């Protein structure tokens, strides 16, 4: 089976949902953010603070190329879709499932987490503007699952029922 890539904005639930999905499908799960943190031995905040976003985006593309593409679930970083190259790699190597949540819910989930540099200092309106600047890229996917007001188990069951 080709890879399953979970995409979506920060806080949509990719990492959380991916773990239970992997357990239920008996597949390994790898999180692109966690793999970058491990490889560079730095937190996401440290990478952004010390090297900037462009450096992080390059590390993200490099990681996407290093990750396995068969019999695996890859939970991606919220900004992975902004590069054409990344979207092309994911489409070629698997199917992309978009997790979506309402911006109010996203804001509640992420605004107090200091390890998301592109969210931690933003107002709800600013976060919404960032989401809007990316929305077309997120829609380049096989199907979308709304994670607003749903238990993780319900989201995972919906994904499994819709997988090809
Ligand atoms: N369906 C849900 N219901 C309630 N809380 C949730 C749900 N999904 C995720 N969360 C919570 O929201 C926060 C963000 O979730 P998670 O880290 O999985 O998002 P993400 O999409 O991986 O974000 P990022 O793009 O920043 O990696 C976590 O605290 C998680 O526990
Ligand atoms: O949406 C984004 O740009 C990001 C999302 C996170 O998963 C991390 O990859 C990082 O905080 C950047
Ligand atoms: Mg995540």
Automatic annotation (TrEMBL):
<feature type="binding site">
    <location>
        <position position="15"/>
    </location>
    <ligand>
        <name>Mg(2+)</name>
    </ligand>
</feature>
<dbReference type="InterPro" id="IPR000623">
    <property type="entry name" value="Shikimate_kinase/TSH1"/>
</dbReference>
<keyword id="KW-0808">Transferase</keyword>
<keyword id="KW-0479">Metal-binding</keyword>
<feature type="binding site">
    <location>
        <begin position="11"/>
        <end position="16"/>
    </location>
    <ligand>
        <name>ATP</name>
    </ligand>
</feature>
<comment type="subunit">
    <text>Monomer.</text>
</comment>
<dbReference type="Pfam" id="PF01202">
    <property type="entry name" value="SKI"/>
</dbReference>
<keyword id="KW-0418">Kinase</keyword>
<protein>
    <recommendedName>
        <fullName>Shikimate kinase</fullName>
        <ecNumber>2.7.1.71</ecNumber>
    </recommendedName>
</protein>
<feature type="binding site">
    <location>
        <position position="33"/>
    </location>
    <ligand>
        <name>substrate</name>
    </ligand>
</feature>
<dbReference type="InterPro" id="IPR031322">
    <property type="entry name" value="Shikimate/glucono_kinase"/>
</dbReference>
<keyword id="KW-0547">Nucleotide-binding</keyword>
<keyword id="KW-0067">ATP-binding</keyword>
<feature type="binding site">
    <location>
        <position position="116"/>
    </location>
    <ligand>
        <name>ATP</name>
    </ligand>
</feature>
<feature type="binding site">
    <location>
        <position position="57"/>
    </location>
    <ligand>
        <name>substrate</name>
    </ligand>
</feature>
<feature type="binding site">
    <location>
        <position position="134"/>
    </location>
    <ligand>
        <name>substrate</name>
    </ligand>
</feature>
<comment type="pathway">
    <text>Metabolic intermediate biosynthesis; chorismate biosynthesis; chorismate from D-erythrose 4-phosphate and phosphoenolpyruvate: step 5/7.</text>
</comment>
<keyword id="KW-0460">Magnesium</keyword>
<keyword id="KW-0028">Amino-acid biosynthesis</keyword>
<keyword id="KW-0057">Aromatic amino acid biosynthesis</keyword>
<feature type="binding site">
    <location>
        <position position="78"/>
    </location>
    <ligand>
        <name>substrate</name>
    </ligand>
</feature>
<keyword id="KW-0963">Cytoplasm</keyword>
<dbReference type="GO" id="GO:0004765">
    <property type="term" value="F:shikimate kinase activity"/>
</dbReference>
<comment type="similarity">
    <text>Belongs to the shikimate kinase family.</text>
</comment>
<comment type="function">
    <text>Catalyzes the specific phosphorylation of the 3-hydroxyl group of shikimic acid using ATP as a cosubstrate.</text>
</comment>
<dbReference type="InterPro" id="IPR027417">
    <property type="entry name" value="P-loop_NTPase"/>
</dbReference>
């Amino acid at each position: 089976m080709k890879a399953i890539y979970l995409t979506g904005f920060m806080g949509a639930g990719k990492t959380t949902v991916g773990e239970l999905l992997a357990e239920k499908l008996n597949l390994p799960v790898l999180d692109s953010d966690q793999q970058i943190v491990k490889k560079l031995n730095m937190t996401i905040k440290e990478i952004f603070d010390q090297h900037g976003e462009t450096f992080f985006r390059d590390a993200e593309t490099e990681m996407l190329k290093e990750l396995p593409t068969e019999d695996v679930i890859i939970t991606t970083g919220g900004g992975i879709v902004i590069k054409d190259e990344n979207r092309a790699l994911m489409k070629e190597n698997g199917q992309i499932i978009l997790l979506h949540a309402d911006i109010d819910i996203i804001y509640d989930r992420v605004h107090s987490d200091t390890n998301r540099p592109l969210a931690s200092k933003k107002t709800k309106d600013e976060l919404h503007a960032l989401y809007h600047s990316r929305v077309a890229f997120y829609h380049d996917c096989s199907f979308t699952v709304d994670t607003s007001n749903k238990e993780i188990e319900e989201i995972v069951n919906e994904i499994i029922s819709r997988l090809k």
